[in-house]
Design goal:
19 strands; homodimer; alpha+beta; 21 helices; eight-stranded mixed beta sheet
Chain lengths: ~525, ~525
Amino acid sequence: MAKQRKSKVMRPQARPPKGFRDYFGSEVVDRNAMLEAVTGIYHRYGFDPLESPAVETVEALGKFLPDVDRPNEGVFAWKEDEAGWIALRYDLTAPLARVYAQFRNDLPLPYRRYAVGPVWRNEKPGPGRFRQFFQCDADTVGSGSPAADAEMCMMLADILEAVGIRRGEYIVRLNSRTVLDGIMNKAGILDPDRPEAAAQRRATVMRAIDKLDRLGADGVLALLGTGRRDESGDYTPGAGLAENEARVVMDLIAPADGRGDGAGRVRAALSDGDAGGRDVLEIEKLVRDQGYGPDRIMIDTSVVRGLGYYTGPVYEAELTIMAADARGRPQQFGSVAGGGRYDGLVRRFTGQDVPATGVSLGVDRLLSALRAGGRAAQGAAEAGSGPVVVTVMDRDRLGDYQAMAAELRSAGIRAEVYLGNPKNFGNQLRYADRRNSPVAVIEGSEERSRGVVLVKDLVAGRQIAEVIDTSAEWKSQPAQFEVRRDGFVPEVLRLVDAFRLPPEELQAELARRRDFYLGRL
Amino acid sequence: MAKQRKSKVMRPQARPPKGFRDYFGSEVVDRNAMLEAVTGIYHRYGFDPLESPAVETVEALGKFLPDVDRPNEGVFAWKEDEAGWIALRYDLTAPLARVYAQFRNDLPLPYRRYAVGPVWRNEKPGPGRFRQFFQCDADTVGSGSPAADAEMCMMLADILEAVGIRRGEYIVRLNSRTVLDGIMNKAGILDPDRPEAAAQRRATVMRAIDKLDRLGADGVLALLGTGRRDESGDYTPGAGLAENEARVVMDLIAPADGRGDGAGRVRAALSDGDAGGRDVLEIEKLVRDQGYGPDRIMIDTSVVRGLGYYTGPVYEAELTIMAADARGRPQQFGSVAGGGRYDGLVRRFTGQDVPATGVSLGVDRLLSALRAGGRAAQGAAEAGSGPVVVTVMDRDRLGDYQAMAAELRSAGIRAEVYLGNPKNFGNQLRYADRRNSPVAVIEGSEERSRGVVLVKDLVAGRQIAEVIDTSAEWKSQPAQFEVRRDGFVPEVLRLVDAFRLPPEELQAELARRRDFYLGRL
């Protein structure tokens, strides 16, 4: 028995590690198209690309993620015999700090770079939460100017519009860590004589404020006070503020009359000496000077952006359009990008503070928003996105079929010869349908003897198959026509070119074709 | 003393792990441009993109690299508590086998995909040899047809021409493992009654043949016979063939009269029953039918492609142009891409053989060939590749300067405001030079009062600085001119647009400008 089991072949599971996934076809194409638009804006603003390796030494990477409280959490790290501990990068900012420290004598100052690529988090995966995902960042290292922060906010607005989000469907919200400190000072809740207790309370208050969008004012109020029990029965202890203290905080982050006058609340929160928070007002002035109104960029004193490495202004781009979630319920997309100033990140290497500010785009999040809103290439255009398939009627003539595919490609048409077993012709057409092919080209011996080929309009064929219901009718195969072998390329081009039309025109063209073919029945 | 040491701040080294590197600016831009051309060809041939994660389970990844003999060598792998052993992918083929096995019921058959991305090898780094590098693959899974192999060879030729290698500067060499076996049978050097000894000798002979390009016929002859001592004195034992046996092998892989008639040598090597090797002849016929002559694709019976997973036809694209190596010595670039048929890779998961064939591009290798040949965007065009820099003369007017940059960007010009400390104007111009900026725009209070801005032609300025040798002359700053503030954008555009010209026209335009400015001195 034991022997038998041993001799049984153990096959590996065909599965990626838990929390990782594959991206197919249009998922990759759409993302690349979006990233090209985004990096096009970064480039236009003067940023240069940088590509650092996927791994860094644990030492260089440091021990903090931008959005979590606890150190050294959520990183894939392992020990190499020679190299010591190395780790997969968890974001694109920590490697930037390393690169800047390493090459600071050779790099222009300020150093303005953008970076695109995967990052890895060793966290519990969940629905829609993966352990490898894309980020797309731009940072200015070596400038403390509010103009650098203002540029980030304007660039975020430009990026969202460049990828297809309309004005009014997003908002860039701006705040500063110093404003949040000013609010807490105003409420008198941080005891300067007990710095440790004050730091802890500060963290608890900021965590509470960070939940405003999710829990609403009542939820935050509870978390500022005694604590809050959620629907599941879980209890989160509060910051222990007295009711009047909590009121001061709430009035400065989410007043009952709406969050309109952010600048006014910033001024109310700051004492005369708080130079830091004034940066936010200067940034607001700069973006207004450029014509970016409150419909695009606004101060929102409730923006926190986690407890990570930010030291001054923080900003967050949020989609305000609603979309259906996985269960069809309307849902706000929320934050798709954000960033801020982090003046301390290079110090770890050099001992000197280097001012820096930057943005990071949640690539997968933004892409799913675009797809949900129908802004990514999909639908009708995808129906014809596959290659033209030249079918194989006679396997001794593969060379002729490859020549036909080559002619199509020379005309700019995506095309291939069917390379599976050609015996079953139905399989060839099923393959073409599965590939979203717009057209199949058929040349049997009979067609060949007459010097013609059959051009099969697969998209129209699929649509007709949906409206006519007897297989007898279908057998007459209306959605195809004969053309001369020496003139078939322009005919295929005509059918394929339609898929480059704007969606409405494409729909009209497909309806026209359908009617034409059906009229011949 | 011990305590003092302890209190000293230990700073991390600002360095990537050994064998890893960063890519800056034009290195990234050039590679992306090249990859876009390559994937454009893959797409045109009908392949769909696939992006699998960087990590796989060690189990799924399997234990062999394509080009090395020993199993489980050269992979970055580590143990995660929950997930078990996981590893960074060492190529793009092993993940493809996993994806195909996992999704085979949902994927079209044949499944044709391309993939681009980094792979990792835990090998000793050396000059120009890094532990993370790019691959760019296309594979057809589920087709045993020689037409699928022929397509790969033709696609390799098309790719090299698409990225700028001219016809005649490359050759795609084609062979088959079964031809190599036929050659060894012909020489009578594998004893069928002693399969283990035969397998070992087969490996030694193939390793010897694989070194033909590097060591020449004499070196291979030595390795087929008693062995070879290299210049350093290291000794490599040979396969132990008798001289007449080795002669048979040599005549079939590298006859004294040149390697011209590959098909003839294939026929000479094969007995009537060797169906496999005939594939090579069929592939040759197919590519000839498409007009790919021996100047682009040729049979070469000495092609081996390592001892990895290939089971039938193998192919290799080689650059035949010479280029200077790091020390300026002429050097052949050699292989930049290759591939072959590997029918056994999916069996590990499913127990069934699935025919598959594919190519892999050595991205960094091909890119350095392009750069060495001046085919990648460089030189004169790079001199103006940076952003137009709007300088800061008055830090209270940052908003005005940002508005100028925004106007330039609206006209499609890459532009930014100088965001460093504006106090030292020389630093601003040095920054622009370091960024390869084509133009700096200057508006001080004096210019502002007159409604003008200064447009500084930085590329011409740099060139003039090289030809005139007194700083006194230089101080007259000829390479700049005044324009109206409300009409400065078209003037900048005129200067910047030149960098989109073909190299010769750009050179002529720059010479014209230089003469114009110098004429004003």
